[in-house]
């Protein structure tokens, strides 16, 4: 099992998450669906309360990085799977694809990816045929399509404008004779056949029938190689984005060492302010409510202004990688006891 698993710790784990969100570690390079899965995982973690401060920031950064990668580069623009290339090809050839009648033969992964790509293009009339009717029904149910028995193959062929076939049959299921009979009954309508099966589902001679356009796996895979090459050319740009966003995360993480100190400084200053104001008001018992409120506002403003410069300095040094060193200096200068800092416990 050790050869099949891997683990990352610290910033390497965050970097891996960012790469996954951008689609760099996907089976299909640049796959945009992965970003949605990362967002869903984060949402579920929030729901069950398992995403703390650091994990939440890591996921938020990953989602933001993924969005940048997909919007600022072309890592996911060109279709890079056989099924998506098939639908892209169909859309470039068939006008009013939304209204076309599409027959999908097969119920495996390739078929489902094709149906998903068709749904993204708002195709409304999709039928699914498979030798095992239950699998066709299950697939059709998930994508609001219509399941048909395998015995209805030739009948559905006559109705279809487009056929996408991806079965595991050991021999062709669309013979030249079958397609010829179907086309004879619809001479005014063309038929687009996409054969993405290995071995082929459609006899090669079918492409010679009048009104039929036949594309096979070889035609589509050449386009897949071109698309993947174009996507690979975008990887350096995506990695630059990841490096930028990872730098932001590291700076934020470094700043965590400063937050407890800044909070302790403010709490200490407020205790001193409160004590001195109360002492002053007791000596000046004749002060009316308005005067007391002015003293409160004045002292709060003084504390805020006095702490502004050291607070900004601490934050700036945390961004420069000096958080721990300057946190210690601030504790010594302001007399802050780390052991009494409740915020430190909350950060854990």
Question: Can you offer a commentary on this structure?
Answer:
The chain has helices spanning 11-22, 33-48, 53-72, 82-93, 109-120, 133-142, 153-159, 176-184, 217-232, 235-255, 259-283, 289-319, 323-334, 342-347, and strands at 101-105, 125-130, 146-149, 162-165, 191-195, 212-216. The radius of gyration is 32 Å and the shape is elongated. It folds into three domains: 11-75 and 234-251, 2-Layer Sandwich (Beta Polymerase, domain 2); 82-226, NAD(P)-binding Rossmann-like Domain (Rossmann fold, 3-Layer(aba) Sandwich), CATH 3.40.50.720; 256-347, no CATH class. The protein has a six-stranded parallel sheet, with helices on both faces. It is an alpha/beta fold and 348 residues long.
Please supply descriptive tags for the structure shown above.
single chain; Beta Polymerase, domain 2; Rossmann fold; 3 domains; six-stranded parallel beta sheet; 6 strands; 8% strand; disordered C terminus
Quick overview:
This protein is α/β, with parallel strands linked by helices. Helix content is 60%, strand content 8%.
Mean pLDDT: 90
Shape: elongated
Order of helices and strands: HHHHEHEHEHEHEEHHHHHH
According to CATH, the homologous superfamily of the largest domain is NAD(P)-binding Rossmann-like Domain
CATH architecture level-2 label of the largest domain = 3-Layer(aba) Sandwich
Uncertain stretches of 5 or more adjacent residues = 339-348
Number of strands: 6
Q: Tell me roughly what share of residues is in helical segments.
A: 55-70%
Whole-number count of domains: 3
Largest sheet: 6 strands, parallel
Give me the CATH fold name of the largest domain: Rossmann fold
**Which structural class do you get from the secondary structure elements?**
alpha/beta
